[in-house]
Amino acid sequence: MNILKEAKLCFLLFLMGVLCIPVSGKKRAENFRVVDLRSEYQVNPIGIDVSPRLSWRIQSDYRDFSQMAYQVIVASSLTKLNEEQADVWNSGKVLSSQSLGVSIYNKVLQSRQRYYWKVRVWKNTREFSEWSAPAYFEMGLLSPQDWKSGWIGYVPGMPGRVLYFKGTFVPRKTIKQARAYMSGIGFSELYINRKKVGDHVLDPAQSTYSKRVYYVTYDVGKCFDKAANSIVVPVAPGWLGTPRLRMQIEVTYLDNTTEILTSDRFRSVTSGPIVSSTVFDGEIYDARLETDKLYAPGIPPGLMNKEWAWAHNTDDPVGKMVAQKVEPIKVVERITPTLKQEVRPGTYVFDAGRNLAGWVALQVTGQEGTKVTVRYAETVYEDGTVNQENLRNAKSTDTYILKGGGVERWEPRFTYHGFRYFQIEGLPGKPRKEDIVVKVVRTDVPRTGSFECSNPLLNDIHKMIVNTEASNLHSVPTDCPQRDERMGWLNDMTVRIEQAIYNFGLSRFYPKFMDDIQDTQDAEGTITCVAPYRFGMRPADPVSASYLLLAQKCYEFYGDKRIVSEHFDGMKAWVDYLYSRTSDGIVDYSYYGDWCPPRDFLADPNGSGVSKDTPGKMMSTGYLYLCSEILSEMASALDKQEDAARYARIAKKTAQAFNRHYWNEEVGGYASNNQASNSFALYLGIVDANHIQRVVDNLVEDVKKHNYHLTTGNLCTKYLLEMLTKYGYVDVAYKIASQTTYPSWGFMLKNGATTLWERWEFLTGDAMNSHNHPMMGSVGSWFYKYLLGIVPEFTHPGFEEFTIKPYMPKELTFAKGSLETVKGTIRVSWKRERGMLMLDVTVPENTKAKVYVPGKDIKMITEGKRSVSHVREIICLPKEGDFTVLSVPSGNYNLRCKL
Ligand code: BGC
């Protein structure tokens, strides 16, 4: 477009603008609106215990929407909100593009109070949106004094036993509203008049109970009858050991008087049909023990007999009460399994179709006392029976004993299993399809990413990774869901975080896990190998950079600055501790390092997962460098300049020590010059500029030497793929990723995997042989970060600005996918066809993207038939290497470029 044409267009736009301005000079715009209002990343939460950060998204019919200003009003009732009476808070018109983390300033929020809010935004001085639809948040119990109930338990409770606590409630008047604040630990469920309240399972979220206990708030206003109501709470040992209950039900009557029913007035406790239930071993349910007395209103007479006992008040066994912020665990999917084989007469083995976490629900008819068992496993023996060897000490068996006399339906409540196959014994007849359902159980976080490309193998790998991650979200990110472990290992998390945060919405899950980590920290600053701490070592292996990476990713992906500032001191203490463990700049300990490389690269092929070629202390030192760097960046974001400088200094010194000790001038690589050491050093970004090419060459050479196979463990696999791609060898990275021979993800798939293995080998025996282990899945983030190229920016958190820089291996003809972000959906799709590259991207409202197009000449890149240099919204930035860089505001763009 020449200058004259441009001037004409500008004039036309100007005229259109003038004509659109109403007499008042202000216009309520219909072409953009505010949607998806959230408080603390939740839609209309009840029972929160922090002053919520508010957020919203904008939908616009046009390109280039950026918010110039916003106004939030908060009212104490919906009527007031509708009348725009902001009796709680009025932000006024704030000139800002902020749509995340907006705090309600100077307001002390009251326990139990519900607050209503809405928001409107301005695009420019003249155009503003309608008010959004109203949203609300309701506070929980904010101070310890709000807790009127103490804890109860039953000290003689036997290990593994589920205790049923019981109370009765007779309302005095007509109920207007009721809330149950409830914490039964290990796991519990609330039944009012025989009906379960809500659809959570395995509540509350696990924690370090001596530091913090989660409570869940339920709206129980509609659960009560006028007459006597029975309230029964079965509590299982879960991760605590001895069941405990603390609950209060707060009732507001129509006349606004209130009544609080506390569980420490529940005097009766009994055992019931769930005879025992533990996380690893499974559940035993004896339906013959069901009795109407349990759920019928009224306290049973004759307490302290064989059946009923007094529930005892126990001393406060636990830490502070905290509202559960993480999504609950739920049944998220139901699968009809296929009958694989009748392995012996009356013994049936079923296949759920994929490895997963959950349990089996049964429907059965038979004689009283018939015992049905369900044994869960990831693999089967040659004769078709289930192989439970790799579950180690976990019995993973559920048992149901029939009461007889009709159809009986049952599923376990307080355990879960990791399995693909299950073996049922004792069924009274042949199982029918409709009698058996597999329930998939996990923390109910949303899926946020999608990925697809022209190679079906990579699509299957992506699916396998998503299945694995989904199997390992149970209020903590577990290492595996099946054996006697299921722990939040921090070393695995170091490389898992990014994969998971592209695939799932973890804005509430990760901050919860950070609290778990913080709860393990001691006065010296040490954290532990797993959080909550039930396993492994203290201090944690220094490769547990996940504590800092979690904060960094929450900041980048969700704009969560609070998490950074809340944990800043804790992160600092951990880094200080690591620094105190250096000698000549090298961290003096390591347990796991780059854990579980292929067998030939293990220090002891029949022992643990320690690598023979990748020095553990090198890994420890590298992570001290990385953590110091991240801490320095976070300090800058928090405006803590002194800390920023101090940790930058530590980082620099550590990088020097790393180079001094591990750079091998003779070979031109690090340590043993293996894939792990070289890719790790490159990833850290500490390789001397003059050495980079040699290191990259050595890396590529080594990959070729191994016939395009990796030799890396859980950590460095990530860095290997990323560094090859970054330094111009995306085709080499692609070859590794799309291998089908050992060791590779394709090899797992070829051997029937539907979830990732813990080892590169196919092993089913009694050791570290999980078949559902996320730690090897970092190729999952390579799909998003490199093949789609979606990368957030630390300096513009919450996707305010981000990068789209797709790398395109020659063997792929297309890749496409999306990411649901806090600002809206990012979409990327690229395709090569007849010498043309088609790159379609969607940039959400109120964000900006730098789009890297692998085009040599800007004139060759078009958008809607025009050269991009003539598209009003697009700004062409200086070229970077082989990429042309475009800065684009919100909108859909269909870029075309001759190859
Ligand atoms: C866990 C792994 C972890 C390792 C560290 C194993 O038992 O399952 O995921 O990396 O221990 O030692």
Automatic annotation (TrEMBL):
Annotated transmembrane regions: none
Domain Bacterial alpha-L-rhamnosidase N-terminal, residue spans: 173-333
Enzyme Commission number(s) of this protein: 3.2.1.40
A GO MF label: alpha-L-rhamnosidase activity
Annotated ranges, domain Alpha-L-rhamnosidase concanavalin-like: 342-441
Catalytic reaction equation(s): Hydrolysis of terminal non-reducing alpha-L-rhamnose residues in alpha-L-rhamnosides
Every Alpha-L-rhamnosidase six-hairpin glycosidase domain range: 447-786
Domain Alpha-L-rhamnosidase C-terminal, residue spans: 795-865
Pfam annotation, one family: Bac_rhamnosid6H
Database matches in InterPro entries: 6-hairpin_glycosidase_sf, 6hp_glycosidase-like_sf, Alpha_rhamnosid, Bac_rhamnosid6H, Bac_rhamnosid_C, Bac_rhamnosid_N, Ig-like_fold, Rhamnosid_concanavalin
Organism (species): Hoylesella buccalis DNF00853
Gene3D superfamilies: 1.50.10.10, Galactose-binding domain-like (2.60.120.260), Immunoglobulins (2.60.40.10), Maltose phosphorylase, domain 3 (2.60.420.10)
Top-tier EC class: hydrolase
Identification of the protein by name: alpha-L-rhamnosidase
Domain of life the protein comes from: Bacteria
PANTHER family: ALPHA-RHAMNOSIDASE (EUROFUNG) (PTHR33307), ALPHA-RHAMNOSIDASE (EUROFUNG)-RELATED (PTHR33307:SF6)
Record carries keyword Hydrolase: yes
Keywords: Hydrolase
GO BP terms in the entry: carbohydrate metabolic process
